[in-house]
Amino acid sequence: MKIATYNVNGISARLPVLLRWLAETKPDIACLQELKAPQEKFPEQEIRNAGYEAIWHGQKSWNGVAILSRAGKPEEVRRTLPGDDEDTHSRYIEATVDGVVVGCLYLPNGNPAPGPKFDYKLRWFERLTHHAASLLHSGKPVILTGDYNVMPTELDVYKPENWVDDALFRPEVRSAFHTLVAQGWTDAIRKLHPDEKIYTFWDYFRNAYGRNAGLRIDHFLLSPAVAGRLHAAGVDKDVRGWEKSSDHAPVWIELK
């Protein structure tokens, strides 16, 4: 089973890139973030023509998450992260696909920090950590994947000294990520590539992609019931170089 995550940075504008990537790599499950489209504007027919069934949670101009599957329609479990009934951001969707629970998430950016947006990010992280604990307690095979908007270590960011005050790299955020992982999750990329500089995002400015001045902010966290099946993991870096592509590249894992 091949599972991928991809922050598409606007599904309408990037649809040709998304469809090309799906056709070339054929992941069994694909989690998408930053749809930037209302619920009714999701390209369901185009996705179905590509061989995928989908569930999604859209939002006009911002956010938005989706789960695509080639193994039948994902069985939706929830489309909001528990813990705040007043949070209207479309940032989380969860489904069962082929016996695996898949949580697709788009964690808040949090800039500028400090400030209200940073406080919201930390609260969202707390909610995610609480929900993740309940998922672990279930004993089911669970995958939490998406754009976490955090570089966990200095290895995950080009020139870390330039990011010390950024909401993606502040100590509070990195600590929150490590607290989450410490529950018993496996960071798939780091499990198989512990010492490599691997990035998943390159800014559109200053020739960041050409210089490989990137960040690793898109992650796969695997529960124990899944981690033992981890066979391979990587980043489709070349997709970032395609015309009119997202500033993220797809990240994927393969399970035995």
What's a concise summary of this model?
The chain is an alpha+beta fold.
Describe the structure.
It contains 7 helices and 12 strands. The chain has one domain: Endonuclease/exonuclease/phosphatase (Deoxyribonuclease I, Chain A). With 256 residues, the chain is α+β, with helices and mostly antiparallel strands. It has a 6-stranded mixed β-sheet. A 6-stranded mixed β-sheet has the order 5-6-7-8-10-9. Helix content is 27%, strand content 24%.
How would you describe this structure in keywords?
single chain; 256 residues; Deoxyribonuclease I, Chain A; globular; double-stranded DNA 3'-5' DNA exonuclease activity; Exodeoxyribonuclease III; DNA binding; endonuclease activity; metal-binding
CATH architecture descriptor name: 4-Layer Sandwich
Strand content: 15-25%
Q: Segments where pLDDT lies below 50 for 5+ residues?
A: none
Sheet/helix structural class = alpha+beta
**Multimerization status:** single chain
* Shape label: globular
Radius of gyration: 17 Å
Strand order of the largest sheet: 3-4-2-1-12-11
What order do the helices and strands come in, and which of them pair?
Elements: E1 2-7, H1 11-25, E2 29-33, H2 44-49, E3 53-57, E4 65-69, E5 75-78, E6 92-97, E7 100-106, H3 116-138, E8 142-147, H4 171-181, E9 186-187, H5 188-192, H6 208-211, E10 218-222, H7 224-227, E11 230-235, E12 251-255
Parallel strand pairs: 1-2, 7-8
Antiparallel strand pairs: 1-12, 2-4, 3-4, 5-6, 6-7, 8-10, 9-10, 11-12
